[in-house]
Amino acid sequence: MNKFKHIRAYYTGFILPLVDFLILWPILSIMKRKTTTSLDLRFLGDKKVIEKDIRHGAFFMTNHRDIVMDATWLTFLIRTRYFIHPYFGIGNNLFGKWWIEHLVRFLRAFVVIRNGCFHDQRENAITLSQYIRHLRKRHKSIWLAQREGRAKDGNDITQPGVLKMLTIDAEDFFASIKELNICPVSISYEFDPCDYLKAREMQLKRDNPRWKKSRKDDLVSMKVGIEGHKGRIVYRLTPSINHEIDQALAERPELRELSRNEQIQFVCKIIDQHIHAAYELYPRGKAFDEYIENRLKLIHLSNKDTDYLREKLYEMYNYPVINHEKALRSHY
After folding, report:
1. What residue ranges define each of the domains in the chain, with the CATH number in brackets?
2. With the CA atoms of 314, 323, 174 and 136 taken in that order, what torsion angle do they form, in degrees rounded to the nearest 10?
3. pTM, 2 dp
4. pLDDT in tens, 27-43
């Protein structure tokens, strides 16, 4: 295990329950009361089947809305109901302050290293993949977002690179994926506290394709995402994708003959189907239009393009509706 020392969590043994009881749960309970209207864990499909899928550990893969709170609320809900505390991945690009790395490692996070040359990135990916498989062999649960970075426009699409990393040294792709026991989870926020920041980033990127976020920008997003009001939040668990993979391979054995990239795309579509079909949709009306106008006032840019920003704000809330309706009409 020494080779995993730089990515594994620090704490062991009795420390986790003690930290949960004395520190984390009281803080999260206060945050829930102050920043949400409600926080619910729901299911898409047979609840007993889903609970059986996660009983011996699961790989929770979710859409990505918030840098910190996506994994935090999932951990809160899963630990409260099933006494499962997932490990979760966080990019090293978020370590803008000295204390963040130590805090997230202590809270059972492992680090996804996203910089370095091609050789270093490949070696890091292999090590991370091996570490994740080490956790799964011990029946530990894991959370990882379906993509690197948040879906700023609300269009949640699984990034092939994530599955490529998870199976980077696997000979049999489908067997390797099934060992992970991926259970997609759909996250639906009634309001995204970072929506105006995301819209601002989109205009900056449009006006200057070379523009990149700074570590300060990430820290601001983390702060706003933690403290901002989110309204109603629903996490909806879906069955393990293993059921669909088994069925697909039985009906279409030619899937095994596809290229690795084609196999990855096939599994990405299954994950997307689960997440899109499981969205919780919130009613929108005149009050929501007023909300959008108020968010526009928070955006400060010297060359502020109000029409473009308004379009992007609506877009990030409309994409889940579009993808949900499409998922209900079709099956990949």
Report:
1. 27-329 (3.40.1130)
2. 50
3. 0.90
4. 888 999 999 999 999 99
